[in-house]
Each structure stands twice: as structure tokens, then as C-alpha cells.
Amino acid sequence: MIIGDTKMSILLIEDDEIDAENVRRSLPKQTEVVPATTLHAALKILNDQSQDLVLLDPGLPDSSGVESFERIREAAPKMPIVVLTGLEDQQLALQIIRLGAQDYLLKNQLDDRSIQSLYFAVERGRLLERLQKEQAERERLALELREQEQSLAHLNRVSLMGELVAEISHEVSQPLSVISTLATALEAVHHQPTMDTANCIELARKITEASSHAGPVSYTHLTLPTICSV
Q1: How much is the pLDDT for 215?
Q2: Alpha-carbon dihedral sign for residues 172, 173, 178, 184
Q3: Which residues of the chain have pLDDT under 70?
Q4: Phi, psi of 85 (to 5 degrees)
Q5: Is 194 helix (H, G, I), strand (E, B) or coil?
Q6: Report field, pTM of the whole predicted structure over 0.70
Q7: DSSP label at 230?
Q8: Which positions ≥6 away from 129 have C-beta within 8 Å?
Q9: What DSSP element (H or E) covers 172?
């Protein structure tokens, strides 16, 4: 696509009628020019509609210099701004560019090359906006990935805890079953008409042995590292 054939809408903020008319004549016919002679009028236009670019003379009746640029940028932070200035104000234009303006044009040197720079400013602005959107999307995806990883780690800890509980239950149930069986046998011996003291002692010894086995098993599993906590 030829740059000069591209349609473009420009907010021209210029309080000098002669300079404004010179700018309009220098622009291609298909360019839509929305005029504003004060900062207040320009801010109202930006609030009501969107343009491709702002062409700003920073010396306005109700604002001047860097303040004009900063107010416009605050109202339309993503819109490219090109400074329109005279030879005597080039240092101010350079200062505004350092603050974020795309470029500057000299009022008395508007030619095809300078007009092309307006299209380049628009394209740079669009490219910057697209890059910002892509960066925001990458950050969103990175955050989503971190959340999924945290969720997966939590599920892994829950699964590990379930396996641990099952293992403890298995390890402890065996000696407890033995203890229950021995206790029943001891009770039966105790109720016999003639109590077998030696047998009672042996059964009591086995109960103690089974109990001593169950204790270390449960203690060992319940004092595993905190990685198992959920």
C-alpha cells in the first residue's frame, strides 16, 4: 500500500489560522483533519472521538510548552503525537520528544517527506500498541501457567498425603489386629477354671511386643518432612 493513499484522521491543535491552513493544504486530500484552537477544545474532541494522530502546536492560548503535550498524552496515552513547531522552538520540540512524542515538524518546511513522517508515526503507534497487547497477553498466559503449576503441585501433595495415610493405616492395622487377637485369647485364659499363669504371661508379652511395633510405625510416618503438608 502506498503511504500517500492511506486514509488518516488527524487532530490538528493549532491556534494560528494561517499555520493551520498551511498544514491542511500540505496533507493529502483523503486526510481527515479535525481542528482545535485550544487545549480545552482538543481534550473535548479526544474524549468524544478517536483519531490516528495528534499534530500539536504546544503554544496554545490556554496552555503552553511541555504542559500542552503532557495534558494531551494523559487524555490519549496510546495515540501518537507529533509536535508542530517553528525554527525558534526546536529545543522545546526535542524536549517533548524525549518525554514521549513521536516526532516534530517545522511549520515552514512541510513537504512530502515531512508528511510521510506522519504516516510513519501512525504506524509506529499502531505497532507499539500491538506489542503492548502481545506483552499483556504473554504476562496473562505466564500468570495462568504459574497458577496451573501451583494447582498441580497442590494436587500432588494431596495425592502424596492420601498414599501416606493409606500406608500408615496398613502398617498400623497389622499389629493392632494381632493385639486384638491376643487380648481375646488372654481374656479367655483368664476366665478358665484353672488359670494358666505361664500362658497369661506369654500372651501379655506378645501384646507388649505388638504394641511396641505399632508405635514406631505411626511415629515414623507422622514425622515425615513438611512436603507432605497440604
Answers
A1: 57
A2: positive
A3: 1-6, 170-172, 190, 195, 213-230
A4: -145, 170
A5: coil
A6: no
A7: -
A8: 78
A9: helix 112-190
Task: Copy the grid coordinates of residue 191.
Answer: 476366665
Per-residue pLDDT tens for 73-102?
999 988 899 998 887 788 888 899 899 888
Beta bridge partners of residue 56, listed in sequence order: 13, 83
Q: What is the DSSP track for 132-159?
A: HHHHHHHHHHHHHHHHHHHHHHHHHHHH
Distance from chain centroid for Cα 220: 44
Q: What is the pLDDT of residue 2?
A: 38
Q: What's at 156, amino acid-wise?
A: N
Which strand ranges, in their side-by-side order, compose the sheet holding 81-85? 32-36, 9-13, 53-56, 81-85, 103-106
Cβ atoms 102, 52 nearer than 8 A: no
Residue 104 β-bridge partners:
83
Beta bridge partners of 53: 10
Can you give the pLDDT at residue 216? 58
Strands 81-85, 32-36: pairing is unpaired
Q: What are phi and psi of 52, to 5 degrees?
A: -80, -25
Q: What per-residue confidence (pLDDT) applies to 13?
A: 95
Residue among 127, 2, 107 nearest 57 (CA): 107
Q: Which helix (DSSP H) or strand (DSSP E) does residue 82 occupy?
A: strand 81-85
User: What are residue 194's phi and psi, to 5 degrees?
Assistant: -115, 105
